[in-house]
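for ur thesis appendix - SprT family zinc-dependent metalloprotease. copy paste whatever u need, i formatted it the way the template wanted (i think)
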Amino acid sequence: MPELLESRVETCYQQAEAFFKRPFARPQVSFKLRGQKAGVAHLHENLLRFNLQLYRDNQEDFLRQTVAHEVAHLVAHQLFGDSIQPHGEEWQLIMRGVYELPPNRCHNYEVKRRTATRYIYQCPCPQSDFPFSAQRHKLVRQGRRYLCRRCRQILVYSGQTRVE
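the 3d part is after this line
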């Protein structure tokens, strides 16, 4: 599947080169992006990172819009330098003029959230539940202490967990 995505990156670069009548350095492409972002352009590293899960779930629009969106950031940077706004008029010019696409700043893909276990900590205050992440719970087990902001007592693990 990433081959199609890499092919679309190349096509976007060829379109930009034909439009601006100049070559552009090709980026490294990574598929190690997770979370809510569909893609990220790292300007100074000439690197594109894409979210494979969002690509799989939204392949057609992702190839058309998201890939062009991220390539446009790198092309704009190579043309205009550091002083431009990320979604400013230079980037918008490339989206409209080169790719003939709307300059949408954000995607509207449905993002599936992972479930997370929360470890419930308490203090003497009435109705005081403090859900800790697994990472913070581990820090407590290694000796770190957290205090309640109200009563300034040490938060203690209740033995309960909750899945969110």
